[in-house]
């Protein structure tokens, strides 16, 4: 019963905090962490011990899966070089820099264990950076790079952590074993992800019931993650590859009803999981403080050093890799050098999250050489999370405005959409003429008008924004009509003219139509 109360309490706090954060204009992840820290010092309220297995096996797979579903495969492929430089190169660079720094501060701690801490704090969070980037309207390519980095960097960090911990506890580790471990992690993860994408894609194509479709979608992250982990491959890579494969083919795999239901379902799951993760991070503070064996000032000195290295390492790595790569003619022709503001804002988007804390909590109690300050290591990881979230997350919008990061050309986007919509409408009308046959002429004319209307709406977005367009007027008036129609159905249900089932069906049809009005498609 106590566990159920905690779950209900977590959800309630996530919802309430998110509402307040939106009202006052604060980013939800930041506020959730701060609220969690505050609650952690109230005895008897939401005392939740964060089990690393819950995050790494229970929460991480679905979060990564839904992020992969929403990622553009062509954009991911085009930006693969910068994504890998960040997700692999930067993680290893940061792990080494932090490891050497901590070893200088704590020379009695084995170097391998210091590298393990470096791997723990190296990967930016899969949620925080992209949430901030989308919120402040950063260019699409920067968002794609940050998303791609966060999809893969956990795999790099967890493999590095596994190798470092193995060395620290006395297992034989050499170049061959490290290479073998990395190869199994990557190739095994990719292989299982591809197989999962093919098999589950076939299953989705055969299933016609939206509820079954969504149940399969819910199971998918673990269907590929668990087998990958069982053979010591990267479950993260498997989930990402499977998600990319299914997301890219989603228009041809599922019915419209399944896609609509799945979109609504995953949006809710994503909101609750992401919010719970940040709240759980904050709730751990009191327990972590109680586990620190060192003095306050020594702990603060180590924390300041690690935070500084984490932030500076990202900058030191990013700028040379961005511009030195353009010395290669092929890279320069395919991808010219970006303005300085682009790598600058990416270098400041290094917020850490729950994976860092879960990885820290999974550190062993002792090493081959004996005990080490595990409590200090965990509090250092927690401090990096809070500092990067609050410092970088809260100031990223200001930094982006100060750097004057050039945004996407909205006019060009609207023009491209209008052009494609025009072609789509022509294709739809051509198909209509092929299959109309003996259909009533009135029905055919109405469908022709629908195709024309959708094309016109796309072109209207290129016009003046200070005047109500015909489609906007249509949407406004149709909404008023729908409200009146709903009231008639409600009164008919209340007076017993129609059963509840009839009202629900009519309400669903009207809700679907209104959702199209909100987007401007009718």
Automatic annotation (TrEMBL):
Its primary localisation, in coarse terms, equals membrane
* Pfam families per UniProt: Na_H_Exchanger
Superkingdom of source: Bacteria
Membrane topology, record value: Multi-pass membrane protein
Which positions fall inside the Cation/H+ exchanger transmembrane domain?
A: 10-402
Ordered alphabetically, the record's keywords are: Antiport, Cell membrane, Ion transport, Membrane, Sodium, Sodium transport, Transmembrane, Transmembrane helix, Transport
| Subcellular localization, as worded in the UniProt entry | Cell membrane
**TM ranges:** 6-24, 31-48, 54-76, 83-103, 109-132, 182-203, 231-250, 271-289, 295-319, 340-363, 375-394
Name the segments for region: Disordered: 492-522
The answer on whether this UniProt entry bears the keyword Aminoacyl-tRNA synthetase reads: no
Q: Which family does it belong to?
A: Belongs to the monovalent cation:proton antiporter 1 (CPA1) transporter (TC 2.A.36) family.
Function of this protein? Na(+)/H(+) antiporter that extrudes sodium in exchange for external protons.
Q: What is this protein called?
A: Na+/H+ antiporter
């Amino acid at each position: 019963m106590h566990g159920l109360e905690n779950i209900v309490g977590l959800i309630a706090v996530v919802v309430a905090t998110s509402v307040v954060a939106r009202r006052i204009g604060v980013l939800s992840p930041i506020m959730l962490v701060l609220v969690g820290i505050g609650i952690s010092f109230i005895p008897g309220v939401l005392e939740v011990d964060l089990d690393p297995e819950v995050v790494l096996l229970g929460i991480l797979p679905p979060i990564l899966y839904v992020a992969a579903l929403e990622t553009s495969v062509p954009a991911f492929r085009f930006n693969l070089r910068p994504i890998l430089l960040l997700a692999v190169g930067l993680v290893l660079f940061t792990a080494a820099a932090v490891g050497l720094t901590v070893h200088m501060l704590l020379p009695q701690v084995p170097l391998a264990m210091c590298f393990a801490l470096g791997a723990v704090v190296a990967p930016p969070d899969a949620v925080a950076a992209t949430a901030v980037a989308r919120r402040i309207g950063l260019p699409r390519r920067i968002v794609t790079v940050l998303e791609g980095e966060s999809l893969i960097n956990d795999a790099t960090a967890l493999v590095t952590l596994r190798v470092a911990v193995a060395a620290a506890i006395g297992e034989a580790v050499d170049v061959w074993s490290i290479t073998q471990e990395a190869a199994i992690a990557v190739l095994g993860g990719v292989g299982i992800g591809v197989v999962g994408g093919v098999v589950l894609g076939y299953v989705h194509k055969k299933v016609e019931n939206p509820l079954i479709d969504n149940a399969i979608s819910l199971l998918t992250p673990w269907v590929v993650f668990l087998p990958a982990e069982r053979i010591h491959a990267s479950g993260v890579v498997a989930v990402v590859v499977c998600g990319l494969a299914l997301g890219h083919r989603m228009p041809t795999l599922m019915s419209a009803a399944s896609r609509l239901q799945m979109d609504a379902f995953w949006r809710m799951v994503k909101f609750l999981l992401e919010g719970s993760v940040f709240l759980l991070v904050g709730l751990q503070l009191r327990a972590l403080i109680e586990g620190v064996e060192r003095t306050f000032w020594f702990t603060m000195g180590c924390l300041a050093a690690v935070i500084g290295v984490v932030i500076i390492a990202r900058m030191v790595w990013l700028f040379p890799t961005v511009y030195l790569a353009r010395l290669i003619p092929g890279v320069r022709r395919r991808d010219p050098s970006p303005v300085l503001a682009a790598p600058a804002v990416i270098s400041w988007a290094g917020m850490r999250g729950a994976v860092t804390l879960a990885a820290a909590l999974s550190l062993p109690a002792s090493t081959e050489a004996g005990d080490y300050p595990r409590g200090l290591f965990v509090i250092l990881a927690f401090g990096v999370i809070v500092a990067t979230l609050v410092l970088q997350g809260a100031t990223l919008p200001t930094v982006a405005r100060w750097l004057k990061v050039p945004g996407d050309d909205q006019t060009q986007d609207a023009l491209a959409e209008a052009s494609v919509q025009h072609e789509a409408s022509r294709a739809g009308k051509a198909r209509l003429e092929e299959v109309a046959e003996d259909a009533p002429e009135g029905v055919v004319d109405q469908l022709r008008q629908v195709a024309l209307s959708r094309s016109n709406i796309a072109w209207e977005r290129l016009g003046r924004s200070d005047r109500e367009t015909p489609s906007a007027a249509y949407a406004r008036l149709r909404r008023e009509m729908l409200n009146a129609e709903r009231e008639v159905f409600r009164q008919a249900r209340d007076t017993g003219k129609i059963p509840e089932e009839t009202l629900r069906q009519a309400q669903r049809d009207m809700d679907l139509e209104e959702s199209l009005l909100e987007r401007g498609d009718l």
